[in-house]
Structures are given as C-alpha cells and as structure tokens.
UniProtKB/TrEMBL annotation, chains A, B:
Pfam families: Epimerase. InterPro entries: Epimerase_deHydtase, NAD(P)-bd_dom_sf, UXS-like. Keywords: Decarboxylase, Lyase, NAD. SUPFAM superfamilies: NAD(P)-binding Rossmann-fold domains (SSF51735). It comes from the Bacteria. CDD domains: UGD_SDR_e. This is dTDP-glucose 4,6-dehydratase. The keyword Lyase applies. Its cofactor is NAD(+).
Length: 341, 341
C-alpha cells in the first residue's frame, strides 16, 4: 500500500490539472486545488464538489499562501498561445513569481515540488528528437517568449532551490497533451480540428501542414507526472509521445473519426511557431519505466466524444459550488492567505 | 545643445554604473543613483558626494520606488560569477523582479528604460561572432543559469512592456567590460590577472588558456549605452569589443605592463564556462555609429594604474556620505519608497 499525502495542485481547474486531481484522489490522497480561473474552469472540477478529500482555493499562484502540504504539483500557467499571449507580462510573472512562491512554500513545509515545465523551453529546436540535455533555441524577444522564457527561468529557480535550500524538486518537461476537458477555444491544433470537424467547418492548417507534432493522451501524461513525483530523480525529464505525425495526418484522423467531410484550408504559419517537435523519452523509460500507452485513434475517440457531448448540450454557467478550503490556520511566517483543510 | 534629463541609474554604485553616472553628470543631467550596495560600493561614488545634481538611494531594485524621471538605466544585478552565485535565487529575482519594477516605474512616468542585458544570454555560443539574432545556448539548470536566464527573462519583459504597454525600451547586450573601479575580488579575468601580477603572485589560467574573450574598456561601453538610450532603436544591440584574444595573450599583456615576472598556473575550467565569446557589432556601428576606441594596452594601463593606487593605499572604510534623496513625494500609485530630488 502506498502512503497517502496532502497535496497542493496549482492550476487545478485547468485541463491537465483537473485530470491530475482525479488521479490523486483515486489513489487516496487529500488534494487542495488552487486556481485563479483565468484559463481553468469550475466545470472541470464540478464532479469533485462533494468529494470529501478535495478542497478548492480561488487564488493567483503568485499570491502568498499559507498551507501545510507534503507535495506540490505546480501546474499554474496559461499554456496555449492565445491564452498566454493575452497578457504576456502576466504570463511571465505567473511562471517566475508563481514558481518562486511555491518553492518558498515547499521550503517552509519540507514538501516535494514537481514543476510542470514544457517542451516550449526547447523553442524551435535544431535537434530532433529533443533530449533533456539539449539547451533549446528560444527567441528571447519574440511573441512566445513570455511563456518560453518564463518556464525556463522557473526551471532555473527550481534547481537553485535544490542547490541553495535543499528543496526536493522534480522537473517534468511536458510535450503536447490532449484529451477530454481541453477548452474548445484554446487554440491548440487537436481542439481546433475537433471543433471544426464537429461543426462541419473548414479545417485550418497553418503553413503547408507538413510540420509535425507528437500528441500524448492526458492519462499517459498524468501517469508520468505521478511517477516522476515519487521517483528519486530530479529531472528534468521529457514526458510526451514520441510518435511524430504531420498536421495533415492528424486532420485526416479527426475527419475519419468524426465522419466529417470538412475541407482543408491553409493559413500562414505564426511567428516563431516550431516546425517540428518530438521528445526523446529514453530518460523517462529508464528512470520511471514510463511510456505512453494510449494509441492516437483511441485517445482521439475519447476526446471527440467529450467534445461532442459538451458542444451538444447548451453551455451551463460555470458556477459549480466547489468545496472551499477554510481560512483558519496561518502557517507560513511570510504571511499570505492562510488556508486549511 | 542636447536637452538634459532626470535620470535614474540602478546599480549606480557598481563598476559600470558609477562610470555611467559620471558621464551623465558631465553632460548636465540630474542623476538619481540606486544601489543596495550588495556588490557595489560607496567608494565608487565618493567623488560625487558634493555634486549638486547627484542623489543616492540605498535600496534593492526589487522594492517599490516612487519617483518621477525621464530615463532609467537598469544596471542593477551582481555581474561576476562569484558574486551572482553567492545567492542564485536572489540573482534571478533581482533581474526579473527588478526589471519588472523598473518597467512599471517607466510606464508610470512615461520614461524611457535602457536594460543592461548581457552577452551571457548567448550562453556557451555555437555561433561566432555572436549576432543579435542568435538565440544562444544556455543550460537552464546549470550554475550560471541564475544570471543567464534571469537576464533572458528580463529582455522578454522589456519587449512585452513595449508591445503590451508602449514603454520605450532599449536593450543593450553588454560584453566583457573592464576598467578602473573593478572590484579586486570580483573573480573576472582582467582583475584577477592584474591583482595577481601586482602582488607578484602566480597568474591563474583556467583550462589550457586558449579560450578567447573580447574586452571593452569601460569608457567605450558607457558611450555605447548613452548612444543607444538616445537612439530610435529598441535593440537588442551588442556592445563589446570585437578584438578577440586568448587568455594567454591577456596574461602576457598584463605581465608586460606591470613588469611582473609572475608564473602561469593552470586550473580546471568551471562548469558551463563559455569557451569563446565575441560580439558582432555591425548593428551598433550602423545604428549608433559606435565602435570601441580605446586600444587594449591603453585601457589596461589605466586599469592597472587604478588598481596599483587602490592596492597601495590602506583600505579606507566604505563610508562615503552620499547625498541622499529626500523621502518627500509619493508619486507611484502602487506605493513604495517615495523619493524626490
């Protein structure tokens, strides 16, 4: 029997965060979800509103927080380009200040912290597939830099907290992940294609559609995060699906699975858009005995079913009454909103 | 006649900052120097203690500051590896939070901000010489990352303040600079060699001594900063001396100029130490009509004379009574220490 923990998940109302909360609760842990609901939604957590071991804190990750936990999964940050480019300065500060706040909390609690880093730290990579020792190719002053450089700087903070303060850190570099609960308007290619196909609209390809990506189903990504957190390795470790496909192939899969006869249309490639990105997951295989298990067609089928259900039902107001943490106990000397279970 | 400005210089008590203050005062501006004296010294500004147009604020650049100025030169950050590695987390926060604070101040004042970025954002470069469109090769989790990634992230914030808030930014990527007032113990090669030669001690070379650097005399660097600030270009612009020399050649020059007969000794190269770094200054030549004017032998002679004078005289306590800014006027709505002339 594995022991159970008190766990803080930041970004808990997001796509990935909400699946992570589900899995942690299934395994018997107590979970405190934190989210400012800027790109996450209450809907993603509505099914947990009566869960006895789940609590929710609506707060920005950059604000002080007083809480006693054993594990922190730091996922808070808008992650799709249309979201993270709405307030670029805010995005950078969310990554850097948010990670700093959570590292301070981890240091205070003696907690272990897993940082959700990203394949974006490789930028538009010159090395394929990308190994963890590749240093990346990021334009510091481009429109994606707010996310890329914020996440790079957050990795730096993690390893300096390890060296300088002995905080147990785990850094996962998460590649493209897809699955149920992605936002229909988050601007990522899988959700774009599915929404367009289900609406019978044209499927938009950028560039010539020959650029490649690798897509990992969310259950696989979450399993990787859980294994990394409980492993002895700090990382950074790539978590992604090494099966590389072109945007043309993805579009064809989505059309076939939805039975849509939508047409393909082409648009110019946005600035600094990576032409190709694919993880080398040798390290995750060796250290975590981890590799993706869900084939693309199966993952797409589950994602399409979820989108079809959500698009078919009239949109309900996002007002799930989540079980709030009580503001009782001030633990962190530096102050901040004090919350307890 | 050029118009004069009210100018804030952060890192004013540092090597580069103090020379910048001198030059700005010579040109008729009012100068507010800010420094927390972590690696800067009062001695560097002691000659300004009676200057009618100079004021000093002892404060961390990351703390709020209320002040009305037209120009901000943001130089505050420890810049030599032994200094910036003493408190790596503090170094990253100084760059990121400090630049954010100063950009907010610039936004509030309608001031123009020049960010002192660095050749370190190129990491251990694969391209020689480095042009501004080279994206660099930085290890996000290495011992130099606190400085390199902090400075990269600061560049990102500058360009997002330009795009998002219309702040007039100027970004200079400063390469190795040397000259009078370098700290004898700052661990940089020019000061190390000079101190060792003047003491008749062995000259320490790292690796085989064949790695190259380019050294720019401080007067040239300051002239580049002044020109960039008053130009119409945002940058980033490299400011450095493209004349590339090996550590062996530098050691020989210093030995010749000091008349020392010290021996060379070899030590292992530190982790992530760049093997070679040299600016392409084509952009600075075109946009700013700028190129270094001071030959190495002449710059070294002036630097050696300064070191010889400082090492010969007994070290005086660092207690120059600088003319303090008055804490009178609260200008910035977000609060912070309010200071006026």
């Amino acid at each position: 029997m594995p022991s159970t923990h008190d766990i803080l998940v930041t970004g808990a109302a997001g796509f990935l965060g909400s699946h992570l909360c589900d899995r942690l609760l299934e395994r018997g842990h107590r979970v405190m979800g934190l989210d400012n609901l800027s790109s996450g939604t209450r809907d993603n957590l509505a099914h947990l509103q009566s869960h006895p071991r789940f609590r929710f804190v609506e707060q920005n990750v950059t604000a002080p927080l007083a809480l006693q936990v054993d594990r922190i999964y730091n996922l808070a940050c808008p992650a799709s380009p249309p979201h993270y480019q709405q307030d670029p300065v805010g995005t950078t500060l969310t990554s850097v200040l948010g990670t700093w706040r959570m590292l301070e909390l981890a240091r205070h609690c003696g907690a272990r912290l897993l940082q959700a880093s990203t394949s974006e730290i490789y930028g538009d990579p010159a090395q394929h597939p990308q190994r963890e020792d590749y240093h990346g190719d990021v334009n510091t002053i481009g429109p994606r830099a707010c996310y890329d450089e914020g996440k790079r700087c957050a990795e730096t903070l993690c390893f300096d907290y390890l060296r300088q303060h002995g905080v147990a850190v785990r850094v996962a570099r998460i590649f493209n992940t897809y699955g149920p609960r992605m936002l229909p308007d988050d601007g990522r290619v899988v959700s774009n294609f599915i929404v367009q196909a289900l609406h019978g609209a044209d499927i938009t390809l950028y560039g010539d559609g020959g650029q490649t990506r690798c897509f990992c189903f969310v259950d696989d990504t979450v399993e990787g995060l859980l294994r990394l957190m409980e492993s002895d390795s700090t990382g950074p470790v790539n978590l992604g699906n090494p099966h590389e496909i072109t945007m043309h192939v993805l579009a064809a899969e989505v059309l076939a699975l939805t039975g849509s006869s939508a047409q393909l249309v082409y648009r110019p490639l946005p600035q600094d858009d990576p032409r190709r990105r694919c993880p080398d997951i040798g390290l995750a295989r060796r250290l975590l005995d981890w590799a993706p298990q869900v084939p693309l067609a199966q993952g797409l089928r589950r994602t399409i079913d979820d989108f079809a259900r959500r698009l078919a039902s009239p949109r309900t107001p996002d007002e799930a009454a989540l079980p709030l943490a009580s503001a009782l106990l001030r633990v962190q000397p530096a102050g901040g909103q004090a919350v307890s279970w």
